[in-house]
Structure formats: structure tokens, C-alpha cells
Design brief:
Number of strands: 11
Helix content: under 10%
Radius of gyration: 14 Å
Distance between the termini: 39 Å
Order of helices and strands: EEEEEEEEEEE
Length: 126
């Protein structure tokens, strides 16, 4: 339904910041809730943050609450993840995802999304 392209990953020291971007194609972007997930080596994909269609509600995993901020610009069809106070345990591949329409949106469940970006690597050194 929507094509997603992520950017902004990289290598940073603990305590540093990164801003991830996810650019979406199509004029229906504003109809999708959006989420960020991450997958660390040897671990399953985990929820990070989500934002509703209008950007009026946000949701965060407890592990990133107070450090990460999700936002969106529907005019630019882009969703962002601002990551501050990064820790080595934040190291993972980060994925942007668009809501699967036609069902209940469980924000923290990967099965609630059916469009995924390619992933961008975030590495935090100690």
C-alpha cells in the first residue's frame, strides 16, 4: 500500500543522538498509523514507538520512553524518530512500518503493520 525508505542510521558514542527518517510514497500516507521497530543481533523484532494518523497520539516502549521521540510530517509524507541519550543496548537495525488497514491497530505488535522499510543500522559504542 505504501513504499517506505529509511535513512539516518549510523555509528554514535553512548550519550549521543541520531535522527532517523522514513520517507513514504503515495498520497494516502495520512491514512496510516506508523511505527518504528528494531531488531538486535540474536533477538526478535521489538516495538520502539508508534504514532497515529494525525500525529496527535504517540506510544513508546518502556525502554526508550523519555529518550526517543516519534513525529510525522504528513505534508512531506515522512515519519521521524529522534533518538537521544543513546545506549549500547539501543544497537539494532531499525525498521519503519505502516499500519495494516481494515483491522484493529495494536500499536506494539508487528502484525498490525504490512508495509516495512528496508531497515537502517544504528550502532552505539560504549
Amino acid at each position: 500500500q505504501v513504499q517506505l525508505v529509511e535513512s539516518g542510521g549510523g555509528l554514535v558514542q553512548a550519550g549521543g543522538s541520531l535522527r532517523l527518517s522514513c520517507a513514504a510514497s503515495g498520497r494516502t500516507f495520512s491514512t496510516y498509523g506508523m511505527g518504528w521497530f528494531r531488531q538486535a543481533p540474536g533477538k526478535e523484532r521489538a516495538f520502539v514507538a508508534a504514532i497515529n494518523r494525525r500525529g496527535t497520539s504517540t506510544y513508546y516502549a518502556n525502554s526508550v520512553k523519555g529518550r526517543f521521540t516519534i513525529s510525522r510530517d504528513n505534508a512531506k509524507t515522512t515519519v521521524f524518530l529522534q533518538m537521544n541519550s543513546l545506549k549500547p543496548e539501543d544497537t539494532a537495525v531499525y525498521y519503519c512500518a505502516a499500519e495494516r488497514l481494515g483491522g484493529y491497530w495494536y500499536q506494539a505488535q508487528s502484525t498490525s503493520y504490512d508495509s516495512w522499510g528496508q531497515g537502517t543500522q544504528v550502532t552505539v559504542s560504549s
